[in-house]
Amino acid sequence: MERFNFKISKFMGATLNSIAFKCVFVLVAVLILRALLLPSIPAIVSRVEWGNIVYIRNDPQESRLFLEVPQIVWGLNNQKIAFARACLTARMLNRTLLMPSLSASLFYKEIDLLQPISFDKVFQFQKFNELCNGFVQLGRYSDLSNRTRVLELQKGSGRKWTLERDLEQLREHSKGSSFEDYEVIRIIGKNPFLWHDHWPVKDYAKVFECLVLVDEFAKEADRVVSRIRRTTVGSSSLKPLPYVAVHMRVEIDWMIHCKKLEQRLNTNQICSSKDEIIQRVARIPGLETPAVVYLAVADKLLRNSSVLEGWGEGFVPFEKKKLGVEGIYSKYPYLIQSAIDYEVCLRADIFVGNSFSTFSSLIVLERTQKMIKKGESESSSNKTWPSYAYNIKGESNGPKRWITNMSDLSLQAISYGTTHISS
Ligand SMILES: Nc1nc2c(ncn2[C@@H]2O[C@H](COP(=O)(O)OP(=O)(O)O)[C@@H](O)[C@H]2O)c(=O)[nH]1
Ligand SMILES: *[C@@H]1O[C@H](CO)[C@@H](O)[C@H](O)[C@H]1NC(C)=O
Ligand SMILES: *[C@@H]1O[C@H](CO)[C@@H](O)[C@H](O)[C@H]1NC(C)=O
Ligand SMILES: *[C@@H]1O[C@H](CO)[C@@H](O)[C@H](O)[C@H]1NC(C)=O
Ligand SMILES: *[C@@H]1O[C@H](CO)[C@@H](O)[C@H](O)[C@H]1NC(C)=O
Ligand SMILES: *[C@@H]1O[C@H](CO)[C@@H](O)[C@H](O)[C@H]1NC(C)=O
């Protein structure tokens, strides 16, 4: 809420008619008008001093009430989804989300290996608040007042903790002025995926749009992409070759997970062997060859380093080592490596991924948004930023065309776990 402090009592009675007072009065009036008319000035607290008049304005969009969440864990995109849910929870509670810790390491069972990494070491803090202004906001712990009152909100897991029950609990805590006495609501609980999926795809997309990598890592992604673009074959050296990024999800962690999932869902359309991936990519309709294929894989988690073998004529496959960019990646922990790879896939001429992977799903979501922004959705063909799922058979035995349905009512419908993809 706006708050004005006028220390003008000293003026009262003494110099009411003085010209100086009139000038000051006009200035104050202007400041008030400015504050009312331009509510989106980014400053959280602006302070203008004029003589002994002090005027303080708290930005109305910057809620003085906060939500705190536990450290966010698991893979890059599972972390992004959990982060988005924390943001949307804060939005629902009309609170600013205290900037959470992400995890630099993939291991989530050994707490000491979790390697907390501050959100702003990975994504631009200021940029996030600028882009998400009016939707959700991040705050810093230093924004908290001295006498912070904290309400702990225990989140549950397990069978009793249904989607409805979770939502009901959140609704309860967003109503009623009694909660406004608590500057901080702190969500606690063990399950790293505390946040249930209560929001439409568009809301998630809005949060993801505000996530911009810090310059250091964005530059590393630029370097990798320019290496790929520099690749030439034979005499076709003038025009850059098209580059296909394939999120080859064949790492050991995935193979364990996907086999279980296939059994449970009674399907064989999840895992995809290397050979199946190669065959499907070769049958992408209209793909011009020669083409560079960038294999986005976590080299460390590969049992089998033969991913470069078996690609047919016309395909020039690269992974990090062969491309000579291993040095770029190896400087960084898992989370950053994965984030660089994500950027490289995002910018590819063609992306091919696995419809059961959140990594693939969020790339397709961002590419779909780019496509929509370019106004392609109205034209007769959705040709820019094409994406495919190699685990599902599409036209002429190629991979299935993959576009995110932005009108879907939950993220579940478009990520981790579907063979029903829009196309
Ligand atoms: N493409 C790529 N993947 C990586 C890298 N490092 C780790 N990974 C994998 O990416 C996965 C990322 O997890 P996440 O983004 O949550 O997606 P998902 O596990 O595929 O649903 C991890 O499980 C790792 O196997 C990397 O440098 N590049
Ligand atoms: C915080 O507390 C310190 C000492 O307890 C005090 O000097 C300071 O003015 C307080 N600040 C605010 C913003 O209340
Ligand atoms: C949250 O803020 C919105 C917009 O300012 C308002 O309409 C809504 O009533 C608020 N909700 C709560 C629970 O305070
Ligand atoms: C590695 O890949 C090759 C070629 O696809 C395959 O023949 C071999 O069985 C694989 N080895 C392991 C350990 O998966
Ligand atoms: C293109 O994609 C958009 C977004 O999914 C969809 O709404 C539209 O119907 C598609 N257009 C065609 C011609 O397929
Ligand atoms: C997209 O999702 C909405 C909401 O679930 C659904 O009504 C619509 O049919 C879906 N569109 C496509 C192309 O699947």
Notes on the structure:
Keywords: Carbohydrate metabolism, Fucose metabolism, Glycosyltransferase, Transferase. InterPro entries: AtOFT1-like, GDP-Fuc_O-FucTrfase. This is O-fucosyltransferase family protein. The protein is an alpha/beta fold. It folds into two domains: 45-200, Rossmann fold, CATH 3.40.50; 213-416, 3-Layer(aba) Sandwich (Rossmann fold), CATH 3.40.50.11350. It has helices at residues 19-37, 76-92, 119-122, 125-131, 163-174, 201-209, 215-229, 252-265, 274-282, 320-323, 326-330, 334-346, 358-373, and strands spanning 45-50, 53-58, 66-68, 96-98, 101-103, 116-118, 138-139, 150-154, 184-188, 243-247, 291-296, 315-318, 350-353, 387-393, 399-401. The strands form four sheets. A six-stranded mixed sheet has the order 12-11-10-13-14-15, sandwiched between helices. The chain has a five-stranded parallel sheet with strand order 7-4-3-9-8. Strand 14 (387-393) and strand 15 (399-401) form a beta hairpin. The longest helix has 19 residues, at 19-37. The two termini are 46 Å apart. The chain binds guanosine-5'-diphosphate and 2-acetamido-2-deoxy-beta-D-glucopyranose (5 copies).
List the defining traits of the structure above:
binds 2-acetamido-2-deoxy-beta-D-glucopyranose; five-stranded parallel β-sheet; globular; Rossmann fold; 423 residues; disordered N terminus; six-stranded mixed β-sheet; alpha/beta; 13 helices; binds guanosine-5'-diphosphate
User: Approximately how much helix is present in the residues?
Assistant: 25-40%
- The CATH architecture of the largest domain comes to 3-Layer(aba) Sandwich
How do the strands line up in the largest sheet?
Answer: 12-11-10-13-14-15
Estimate nothing, just give the exact number of structural domains.
2
- What is the succession of H and E elements? HEEEHEEEHHEEHEHHEHHEEHHHEHEE
The rounded distance between the terminal residues' Cα atoms is 46 Å
Largest sheet descriptor: 6 strands, mixed
> Do you know the CATH topology of the largest domain?
Rossmann fold
What Rg do the Cα atoms give?
Answer: 26 Å
Beta content: 15-25%
Q: Supply the CATH class of the largest domain.
A: Alpha Beta
| Tertiary shape | globular
